[in-house]
Structure formats: C-alpha cells, structure tokens
C-alpha cells in the first residue's frame, strides 16, 4: 500500500489508561473547533447481498446498515476536531485522537455486548496493516450506550451523598425517631472528638468501638444507621446536620436501590472533610467511567453541536447509534429522528464531493483526494499541534485525516464556511445545506486504488416497479443470461439490464414498468407462456418480496434461498399491496434523508 | 482448559467463579510453586514454521503412547439461553453444542504427544501450540469466513495474555475435508474450461469500442511499441539479450519466459491491460498475452513472442499446466492446520482431552465438514476419524480413589493437575494419593526461539496438563506403564479399554455418549440438581414481562391448575421459562386455556390469575418441540423471546395455534355456560351472543371460582 501523505502525522492514541486526560483535552479542542470528523474501524462489513446494493431503496439500505451495526464491533473510533481559516493560504488545524475500544463487561452485567461477529478477511487485512489487536483487547476502553446505562443504573447501586430536602412538618413519631438517632450519633461522635486517650489499652479501645457500633469507612471512623424509608433517610440527614459539620452522611442502598442505611462518617477537620468529599467524588467518577466509558466522547460530540463530517455515514452512524445511544429502531424514519436528537448536523463527505462535477465519479475518498490534488490548486497550510511520535499509523487515523483534509479543500472550493466567518463579505454557504444526506456505500471501500469508475455518471432513477429479481439460473454470467433469457419469454426480448446481486440471484431492470408488472403477474398465475421459464428452474419475484426479505431479516442464507422462502409464502398477497418507491440505479446512489425528516 | 473456561462462562454466577479462578492462580509471574505454569517449554507454531513442525510432529506422534489435545475458542455460547442446561433433552443439548462449534472460531490448537521411555521409566512430552486463524487462502473460496467472538471469552483469554496479534497475523489457516474436495473439484472444472477455451480461439471477450481520445492514443502508442519490439526481435534475434529496449521509452522490462523473449507489463491499469490485449489480438499473431500468478498472490502479465503457431499452442499448454500445478499446490498448502488433525487421525493413537466434547465438535466442524444433524451420527463419524478418545473428566469419575481425592474440589483441568501433580518441593504425601508418574518435557535445543514457557489457558500447555492428568489417572486404574513397549498403543490396554470413547456432552448433561455405538446413556456418577424431566409434560413460555419471576409463574399456574400441578419451573432467561406439569394433559389444557383467554377480550382475561403471565400481550407458549426448533435456528438473538419471535416470523407453521376455532368457541361456550361470566360480558357492554341473561351482582371471587369450574368443565370435555 502506498504510504499516503497523511501517514506522516499521527493521532493521539487513547486507551483506558489515558482516557480521562484525553477526554479533558478533547473537550477543550472541541470548544475551539468548527467541525469534527469521525471514522471507525470495525471487525467486519457485510458481504454478498447483505452489502448495500444498487437496487436498494433507502429503507432496505438502512436495514442492511442496521444488520452490520448490530453484528460487528468497532475496535477503534478516530475523532478529529478541526478548525478552518479561509485566510490565504487557508489554514487547517486538526487535533486527531484515536480511541481504542473493547466491549469489556466492566459492571458484570453482560453489557455492552455479549458477543460480536468478526470477518476474518477484514481482520487479516487489519493485521497486515499493523493493527495492534492486543492493545485493543487488553487496554481498549469499554462503554455503555445511553439505554444500557439507564438499565445498569437500575441494577447497580452504590452509596452516595444525598441532598437534604427542606424540612417538612415533623410528626411526634418523627421527632422521637430523630432525637434517638441524634443521641446515638452524638454519643458515638464524642468517642472520637473527646480528649484522645492514647494510653488506653488497644484492646479496650477496640472493645469500646465495638460496643458503640462503630465501623470504619476507609481510614475514618463511621457508623451505620439502618433506615426503612426515604422519610427516615431525610430525618437522619437532618439529625446529622444538626449535630456537627464534621460528619458526612452517605446513603447506602440495598439491591433494589432503596435506601437501606445511612453511613455517617466522622472527619477530623475541615481539610479532612474536603478530602473525603473529594474521595467520594473520585470514586463516583470512576463509577461513571464504568457506566459511560467511551460514550463520554460521543456525549461531548453531541453536546458540542459541531457538524460531524464522516464518510460512509449510514454505516458509521447506525453503528454509533446502536453502540452508544440506543438499539436501532426498525425503520429509517425513526432512526433519522433519533439520530437528529444526538447529532443535528452530519455531513457525508461523498455527498459533498459530488457537488463538484468532475469529482462525481470518484469511487472513494482516496480517489477524490488525489483528483483534487491534480486538478485543483487549493493552497492549504495544515497544522497538527499534537503529535504522538509513533510512526505506525492505523488505517483509521489515515481515514479521519483524509476526511478532514478533503473536507477542508472541498469547503474551500464550495465556499462553505462556519457561521462565525460570514463577515468576510464573501458569499458563504452554510454547511447545513449539505447535512444529513447519506450515500449508502455500494462502492468497494477497501480498494485504495485511485481509479475512477468507468461507467456513465448519469444516475437515473428507476422505480422499484421496474425491477425483477431472478434466481435459479445456476451460476450463469450476466452475459450468458442476457443471451439466454430472450429465448424463454417475449418479455425478455425487450431492453433490460442485468446485475448480479450475489452468486445465486440477479436483478433485471426493465425500461418499462408495465413489462415487469405483466411478467410478474404471469409468473404468479403460472401462465403457460412461461413453461420454458419454469422448466429451466428459473424463478422470479418483484421488489415487494425483496423488501420483505430485508424486513424479516433473513440474512443468513443466499439471496435466492431467502427470496424463495418468502415468495412461496406470499405469492399472491403482495401483488395487491405494493407501494413503489425510487432507487437510484447507479453505484452513486444517494439517500436524501431530509425526506425522512418531515416529522 | 476447556472445562474451566466453559464452566466459567456458563456456570451461574460467572463473576464469582471467574474471580476465584483468577485469585487462586495469577496468570502472570510464572514462578508459582503449586502452579507448574512455568518451566515447560511449549513449541509455538505459526504460518512460518508449520511445515517443519509438522514433519517433526509426525515422528513424535508415531512413537507416542497417547496424545493430549486441547482447543482455545473465540467463545462458547452465542447467547445466554444457549447455555446447556441439565434439563435439556439430548437432541436440544446437541443443537446447542453444534451451534457453538459452528459459530465460534478455534484460535489455538494444543497437541502434546507423550512417549513412554522405559530407560528413564518416565513419559517424555512434546507440547505444541498451534495458532489458528481462518484466513481466506483460495481465491475460489467464496464462503464468508465470519465468526463470532464472545466478549467474556475474549476478555478471559486476554487476562491470560493470549497473543491476538500473533494469532491474527501469523495464525495458520485451514480447509476442512469437504472444503478441500470442493476446491479440487472447482479446480478441475476450471482447468477443463481453460483447455477447451484455449484450444478453440482466444478471440473471446469481444471488442471494446475505443470511446475516449486517450484510449485511441494509448492504443496507437502500444501498437507502435510492440511492432518496434517485434521487428527488432525478428531482424536481430540477439538484441533481446542486450537488455531494455530503448524505443519503448523505458516502459518495458525485457525478460525471458519459458525460453522465449518477453516483456513484462508493469504499472498498467486493468483498463489499459484490456486495451493491450485487444491490440495484440488484432494486430500481432506472434505475440501472446500471458497472465501468470507470481509469488505472494500478485499476478504477472507478460507479452511473449512465439514465432510459429505450433509454438504458440505449446506455450499455452505449458502455461495452463503451470497454472494447474500452482493451483494444486495452493490447495494443498491451504489445508494448513488440518494436516495436524489428519496426522493424528491416520496414526490412530489414543487422543486425550479434558471435558472435550465441544473441542471434538469444533475439530469436526472446522476440519471435517458441517456437523451432522444428530448426536449419534456425529458420534459415529467422529469415531471413524479418531477411533480412541479418552476424556480425563470422565476418567476421574470412574475410580473411587480419585473421586475421594477430588471430593469437594473443582473438576477443572488445572485443579485436577495441581491435585495430582503437587509441585515436587511442596509435595505432602496424602495417604490416598499415589506417587506421580514421572514426566519430562523435551524441547528442541537447536531452535529455542519458538519455545515459550507454557502458561495456563494456552492450548499447548493445557494439552500437556491433560496428558499429565491422564497418565496419573492411569496409575489409579492400575495400569503399569513399565509393561508398555514403546510402540504400544495405550488404547488397546484392557484396563483402560472400557473407559475410553465415553464423553459427557456437557458438564451438566448427566449423560455419557459412547462414540463407538452412538448411544447416549445416563452417567451413574452424576448428581442431578433437578428432578428428571418428562418432556411431554413441559410447556415453553416466553415473552412475558421481564418483571415476572419464575416463582410467580408457578404460583399463577398453580392457582388455575391446582397446587402440585407444576413439578418444576426452569428459567431459560429473563424472557422465557420451561414449566413442567405433573400430568401430561395439563400441557394442552394450558395451551388451550391461554388461547381462549387471549381471544376473550373482556374482564375474564384481566381478572384471570393467568393474567400475570399474559400481561403485555406478547406472551407465547408452545410444546417442548418448539424449543428444539428455536434452538436449531441459525439466528442468534441475545434474548430468547426475540429469538423465538424471529424464528416464528420466518416459519409461520411452527407456531400454529394449537386449537382450532371450533374448539375455542366450544370452550368459550362452556365457560360462559358456567353462569356468572355472561354478566361480566354484559356489564362490559359487549354482547357476546349468549342466551344466558342473568343479572347478578358478582365479585371477583365469583369470577375466580367460575373460572376454576370452567377449567374443570373444559378439562372434562377435552378428555371425553
């Protein structure tokens, strides 16, 4: 693999040992930056017909992305906040971070993920590129999604400080309870504040401690007061408050989360108390790390509201949603609504480069970048203030830096500017115009070649009514099919395109939707004109059947197998309730998700 | 190690066990007294040194008395409900094990031959640790090679310093016997196609129209270059020797290919190569375009000069044969780690594993072919491959003395090892224990680089420990190694013979399977935790609210079917449970009642005691066979209820309602006839078409009583 220019720079490597510090830095950088680019390295990608195909509608493409997001595991997520200044030459300042992830079950609750899929070809490419799996698995940061965190919080309870509510009316019973508690605590406290009796026999002092019901919290003396309701907790807190400032009450919960006892801790001085409070805060932070882990970064990105720049958006964002936010909803519309609440602006870099005519044919980010390099003069000064000094650069970092650079150049060409720069007098387009339009990647993602696609660049929209799925042709090639089908039925004498979807099934795209519909009708009624067709073992179905296969999630088998199962079951029922939609019959298919956001 | 890992992952509660395992023997450090984790040289084998290791191993296995075997896998269960339970029927248990063996990858194979040395009167062991990774080695192979990792297992391996980098980078790939056959077939087919195609014409491919100006210019330039080179060759045959030709502006490197002058085509795009082929086809009869695969997977393209047509045909034939040989060699090398299994199989030695059913199933699924559909088929086919298998875990249970020794102890491999082989210096002779058999480990002095001191949960070291435990167990069975000649196969020893080929499918199955006959029978030594299951009396319930505890389900059912109607209830996970009734009829009674209650949209369904179970409207119930069908599905959802829904969505007929409509209305009527219920319906405002129109004030108790009556009535009808 040719070493790209980006390889010179490397990102800050973050594992669980330096995570806290890295998050603090990232937070500062995020505040100062205009955009954030994001890229993820996963354990695999769907193969065969489970990839996004040219025949996919937005809906089926989403279902496929959902499958990938749910089965594969991100091992690295690179995050790069950057800022752009359109002075001449324009300046790009980037702060790349590379987070290593592993879904370790920190809380022993079977979360975040019980198991995940790996694709061996993916892993061996990663291994050849020098990916450090040991680092990931040993020291990767774990995480819980927002939903998982709230589940975990219902299962695990730790002692915590609780605010004293303004006192309400106190009944007689309450005041009796309180005065009893008060005297118990005061008596116990006296044992620790009174003149120190150092000469005492250690046996006697430990005995007296035993009698007074004292325990210890770390190195500090403490006592535990059993409570049976939240009301009693308040009373105990109030009592403690009345006695002295040097006592710190911690509410101890039981397994179900209800308060079981209040642990009163004695501190010897004001400094000691502050120290204790800091300790408690620290252990809470540690606990929070166990709950959130890497998700802290996602929450930061979300709250910063900076536009997210990514490539292969549909896949990466469904992954992020399912791992860090919540399980993916069953359809695209709900997904977009939910995503919008987390990241309001997401820019698919491949949508951006398609705005520049000649670039439309670029197959991947590398191709787009090198085309720009050759054809356009975009002077740019690139600064990366933080350098890790490691020489090996993971693919993931390369990608995030490529996205960053490409975005910088494109935004220069397209005159996109962050709002803060609008005063420069130039006509600036807001980045929001390009947001939330995703391209499902049916392109070969892994090839680093810079070849341009040699196909016509005019994407035509085709209705799903024009598509027929054909299987049972036993390994014939596209060319063979095209010459073989016209002999079987007159419908095939018309002009149609053939595309192999996997080794068992191909899609026929007819110019005329009537031909396709007519053919389907004849097939479902088993018309005698199709005798040749059937006796060859051929089968066909319309888009509705394919849609159903995707919706049911019959991903485990070959496409032919799946279509066969569904079509035999719903042969006639589907014809009536068809709803056609559009696909973009080209590899550069686009999903305008704004359509999905009319909510 | 399998026993241990499996138990760690499976046995409830994993946390406690894991921490115990970790605290009892820290993985690192390596100098532990009781833990003989150090000092044993284990040969590490990766892609680089497989060939020589294999040669050496062949000799070692040949002279071995038995061979220890162990596997490390990327996981054990794909979802919590896929754990094997004591309550599982044999076929269900096998389906669960099959799922595990098929889904997860084998990451390490430990093989340790033990040779009896009469001179030393000790065993000599040679532990080997093979790294495995299912890489795609053949271009023709289009299976996806996807495997599952169980997070807990991977994390567990990481705690024991498993080297994932070595595994993924250097791990040895494999083809199963079936995959190999398939590859060879494809190869032959391909070869036939090629020879046919080349003998007719190479005109195939059709002409590409030259669309752009750049294509036309490029084509012209190439035509000129080739012509110039060819003319030069014809006019001055020696010129080719003199090195690169000037005319091509340094673009061509001249070489010889099969004694003929040729030029290498380097740095052209695939589109350009197509254009070049077209130029050659159209303009030069004596220049041949040849594509061969060079080293490390790259293909080399050349233009070769051949002066006559016969020569051309000969050249093509030559190239084809090379291609075939090359491909055959690649298939052979792609077999990879399976050579080790083939070797063990062909030597017919006694294979020793610890709690090794799953290991053996893994070996079968990865190196032989897809696992058969039933356990006895599996047993018989594995018996053909490995005729003698001994399981140390089973052996531990057949000897009284060992059982006494192991009482209250964990049956895991490392626990057995440390008990039977107390470290020599801290050896406190127990009256009941026999002196340990002497075992030496022999490393190869010449190349120490690939030897690493063994550590627990490394397959090579675990295979060694298994062998040691086995040797010691043999002494308890009163087997005298002194009488063993070096060439003897231990498997034929008559004291051992009745204990081999008996494996427990899982640690909690309570059965052993006889591999030679394929029969599974109860293990007399097993202590059951649950009463034996009667599968006809079992109902599977899933999809109830997650807050409902198994106890509540039992109480609910007992309220309707009477106390004592439920023998036991077993929770599969938080969304599903198996309920065993005392009577077989109760199963269908329950299913019918549930169907009725779900169809009745009235107060009955809310007030009925069963409503606790049915709340939420997602509750499903079925007979035990449905459980088997759900387990056999290739889906893998985390929660059982989700899995069951997914399976039922794909095959509708699986979950057909167990009662037809007639019966329901019948039953419904019978409930309605039980006087009071009509008034409930009436009070609800629903007119259910009943003729009975009493107006009576009723209480909850009335309704409950009525339901009991209704059930009894309905039961009577069913039986009549």
UniProtKB/TrEMBL annotation, chain A:
<dbReference type="Pfam" id="PF04857">
    <property type="entry name" value="CAF1"/>
</dbReference>
<comment type="similarity">
    <text>Belongs to the CAF1 family.</text>
</comment>
<protein>
    <submittedName>
        <fullName>Poly(A)-specific ribonuclease PARN-like</fullName>
    </submittedName>
</protein>
<dbReference type="GO" id="GO:0000175">
    <property type="term" value="F:3'-5'-RNA exonuclease activity"/>
</dbReference>
<dbReference type="InterPro" id="IPR036397">
    <property type="entry name" value="RNaseH_sf"/>
</dbReference>
<dbReference type="InterPro" id="IPR006941">
    <property type="entry name" value="RNase_CAF1"/>
</dbReference>
<dbReference type="GO" id="GO:0003723">
    <property type="term" value="F:RNA binding"/>
</dbReference>
<dbReference type="InterPro" id="IPR051181">
    <property type="entry name" value="CAF1_poly(A)_ribonucleases"/>
</dbReference>
<dbReference type="InterPro" id="IPR012337">
    <property type="entry name" value="RNaseH-like_sf"/>
</dbReference>
UniProtKB/TrEMBL annotation, chain B:
<dbReference type="InterPro" id="IPR036397">
    <property type="entry name" value="RNaseH_sf"/>
</dbReference>
<dbReference type="InterPro" id="IPR012337">
    <property type="entry name" value="RNaseH-like_sf"/>
</dbReference>
<comment type="similarity">
    <text>Belongs to the CAF1 family.</text>
</comment>
<feature type="compositionally biased region" description="Low complexity">
    <location>
        <begin position="18"/>
        <end position="27"/>
    </location>
</feature>
<dbReference type="GO" id="GO:0000175">
    <property type="term" value="F:3'-5'-RNA exonuclease activity"/>
</dbReference>
<protein>
    <submittedName>
        <fullName>Poly(A)-specific ribonuclease PARN</fullName>
    </submittedName>
</protein>
<dbReference type="InterPro" id="IPR006941">
    <property type="entry name" value="RNase_CAF1"/>
</dbReference>
<dbReference type="InterPro" id="IPR051181">
    <property type="entry name" value="CAF1_poly(A)_ribonucleases"/>
</dbReference>
<feature type="region of interest" description="Disordered">
    <location>
        <begin position="18"/>
        <end position="39"/>
    </location>
</feature>
<dbReference type="GO" id="GO:0003723">
    <property type="term" value="F:RNA binding"/>
</dbReference>
<feature type="compositionally biased region" description="Gly residues">
    <location>
        <begin position="28"/>
        <end position="37"/>
    </location>
</feature>
<dbReference type="Pfam" id="PF04857">
    <property type="entry name" value="CAF1"/>
</dbReference>
